[in-house]
């Protein structure tokens, strides 16, 4: 079983999630999404696996959001384009399996994903 994590090493919650996966001895591909921004299609796939609307993956407290996007009513596609153009807007950490994904906080969400992938 191999998972992917959209990881920001400067984020404590992201570091905690990665540490948790390592403690569980889960093989993990680390995607430093701020340096290796996902494409539109990759992000669309992750959002589908999360079973969320794109706006729900946006970090609304980020400066770029408050200054440029907070008063906008964009389409789902436009929100995805905004995240691709400004990856700091992507909520973290995102843990991805083959068919599902979760935002990795609290840790119980990661545990649920691990449990589903053992079945």
Would you write up a description of this structure?
- This protein has 119 residues and is an alpha+beta fold.
- Helix content is 43%, strand content 13%.
- It contains five helices and four strands; from the N terminus they run E-H-E-H-H-H-E-E-H.
- Strands 2-1-3-4 form a four-stranded mixed sheet, with helices on both faces.
- The longest helix has 12 residues, at 12-23.
Q: Estimate the global geometry from the Cα principal axes.
A: globular
**Rg (C-alpha, Å):** 14 Å
Residue runs with pLDDT of under 50 for 5 or more positions: none
Considering the protein shown, what is the CATH homologous superfamily?
Glutaredoxin
Average pLDDT score: 95
What's the story with the biggest beta sheet? 4 strands, mixed
Structural class based on helices, strands and sheet pairing:
alpha+beta
Q: Report the helical percentage.
A: 40-55%
Enumerate the strands of the largest sheet in spatial order, edge to edge or round the barrel: 2-1-3-4
Q: Please tally the helical runs, counting DSSP H or I stretches of 4 or more residues.
A: 5
Q: CATH architecture, please?
A: 3-Layer(aba) Sandwich
Please sum up the structure shown:
The protein is α+β, with helices and mostly antiparallel strands.
What is the fold's blueprint, element by element?
Layout: E1 2-6, H1 12-23, E2 27-31, H2 40-50, H3 63-68, H4 76-85, E3 94-96, E4 101-103, H5 107-118
Parallel strand pairs: 1-2
Antiparallel strand pairs: 1-3, 3-4
């Amino acid at each position: 079983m191999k998972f992917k994590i959209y990881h920001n090493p400067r984020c404590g919650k992201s570091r905690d999630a990665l540490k948790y996966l390592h403690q569980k001895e889960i093989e993990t591909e680390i995607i430093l999404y701020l340096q290796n921004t996902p494409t539109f299609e990759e992000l669309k796939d992750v959002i589908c696996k999360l079973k969320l609307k794109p706006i729900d993956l946006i970090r609304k407290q980020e400066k770029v959001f408050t200054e440029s996007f907070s008063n906008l009513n964009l389409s789902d596609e436009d929100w995805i384009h905004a995240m691709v153009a400004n990856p700091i807007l992507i909520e973290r950490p995102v843990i991805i399996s083959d068919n599902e994904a979760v935002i990795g906080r609290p840790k119980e969400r990661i545990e649920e994903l691990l449990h589903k992938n053992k079945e």
